[in-house]
Design brief:
mainly alpha, flat
């Protein structure tokens, strides 16, 4: 068990180092931020002085070593645009992204479990087929397009919900509905497939032969087994969700980390981009480590492998 957890920790550290290296190289190949910071009439001497002040005149290996040394000390640089610590700016935006991701994920996951259990307990093939058709139809529509449709209906036509911003609880309705509905479709199909496989298993047939009621069989035996593979997918998907809200935050003008990274990329604000991507990578690694620990605690085969 200890060896399993240690290997996961080392793998997470290697992942963060790879992300840091990739982002460091990528942002520096995107263009020269000095040209954007200085006016058009700036002389070559002005450009050289600014580049030296920012440390951009050093060779790439020297910049990389300096960047890693500072990052290990918790210093991710100063924003080229705002003149403030990049990590401070990122941490200000992080709560908005985490709120939207966690609320949407929680609602989507539990609604999917409830619908899957209702469908399985009822034993109705028509209900099961209808739920799967609705889930498939929702998954076929990209989240950003679905969100725009909700804005057109509830904000433009009906004028009952705000289209953009993060002001009160009404501001959460459309973004959360957009993301949670996609999450419902994903987990519903996974749990439904697991139920379908278990129906033909020997232990389920034996339980039915012993006279165990259908609700007790589904809730007490089938659901815990069906959730084991779903936990792994849910952990990975939550990490992807946190890092993948860039488009939706732009659509809804949500003041989160994704929108900050998009704005910083267009402004070539290297430190903020690096800090933002690193925070997303950290969230992804931490979530996956927690999922590994939970899976090891629930499944003895993992602990003894």
């Amino acid at each position: 068990m200890a060896r399993y957890l240690l290997s996961r920790l080392l793998g997470g550290a290697a992942t963060l180092l790879a992300v840091l290296t990739f982002v460091f190289l990528l942002v520096r190949f995107s263009g020269d931020p000095v040209r954007l910071m200085l006016p058009d009439q700036a002389t070559a001497q002005d450009v050289a002085a600014m580049r030296h002040a920012l440390g951009l005149d050093a060779s790439l290996p020297v910049q990389y070593i300096s960047f890693l040394r500072s990052a290990l000390q918790g210093d991710l640089g100063i924003s080229l645009r705002q003149g403030r610590p990049a990590l401070e700016i990122v941490l200000e935006r992080m709560p908005a992204t985490l709120e939207l991701a966690l609320i949407s994920f929680t609602i989507g996951f539990f609604v999917a479990v409830a619908l899957a259990v209702i469908s399985e307990v009822s034993g109705s093939k028509r209900l099961h087929t209808a739920i799967l058709w609705v889930a498939t139809a929702r998954q076929s529509v990209p989240p950003f397009l679905f969100g725009i449709l909700l804005v057109l209906i509830f904000s433009v036509k009906m004028n009952i919900l705000p289209a953009i911003g993060r002001n009160d609880w009404k501001s959460y309705v459309i973004p959360v509905a957009t993301i949670a509905s996609f999450e419902v479709a994903l987990y519903l199909r996974l749990i439904g497939s697991a139920f379908e496989e278990m129906r033909a298993s020997d232990w389920v047939r034996t339980a039915r032969a012993k006279g165990i009621s259908r609700p007790r069989l589904v809730m007490g035996h089938m659901l815990p087994n069906a959730l084991l593979p779903v936990i792994t997918v849910a952990g990975v998907n939550l990490g992807v969700l946190i890092g993948g809200l860039v488009v939706l935050e732009t659509v809804f003008n949500w003041p989160g980390l994704g929108r900050l990274i998009i704005d910083s990329v267009s402004q070539r604000d290297f430190p903020v981009v690096q800090a933002g991507v690193l925070m997303i990578a950290c969230a992804f690694v931490v979530i996956n480590l927690l999922v590994d620990f939970i899976y090891a605690a629930l499944d003895p085969r993992v602990r003894h492998s």
